[in-house]
Amino acid sequence: MQLLRLAPAFNSCDVAFVTVNRAYRSQVSGHRFYAVNDATRWNKLALIRMTLALAFIMIRERPDVVVSTGAAPGYVALRIGRLMRARTIWLDSAANVERLSMSGEKMGPYADLWLTQWEHLATPDGPQCLGTVL
Fold first, then answer.
1. Are the C-beta atoms of 47 and 39 separated by less than 8 Å?
2. Which residues contact 33 (CB under 8 A, 6 or more apart)?
3. Is 90 a domain residue?
4. pLDDT above 70 (res 126)
5. Which pTM was predicted?
6. Does residue 84 contact residue 62 with C-beta atoms inside 8 Å?
7. DSSP result, 39-88
8. What residue numbers bound the domain in which 75 lies?
9. Is 104 helix (H, G, I), strand (E, B) or coil?
């Protein structure tokens, strides 16, 4: 949902959306859409399945830029994107008010642009706060 609020920034771009919720397909009509299973570090089989699905999508799409607002699928997509030499943007979810997400803490230092939506979570070494998408 947060990425959809940034959609105007992508108007001149060729965009494909990947999510764990098939119901979002109707909200991104006119764009390529993929749904993958959700996974956590506690379910290794689901994590492997999700990683393989994301790798297939990334190889098919060959993105120049990968943008994520968080969680395991976004973390994996950005890691694969980095391997493919895509630029990466991690925008930690607005839901993480008290602290960064675990995925954000782990991926942020490797992202080309690491952002938080809360000023009090920004640090000189990242993430930066450039505003919110609420």
1. yes
2. 16, 17, 18, 19, 24, 25
3. yes
4. yes
5. 0.88
6. yes
7. --TT-HHHHHHHHHHHHHHHHHH--SEEEE-SHHHHHHHHHHHHHTT-EE
8. 2-129
9. helix
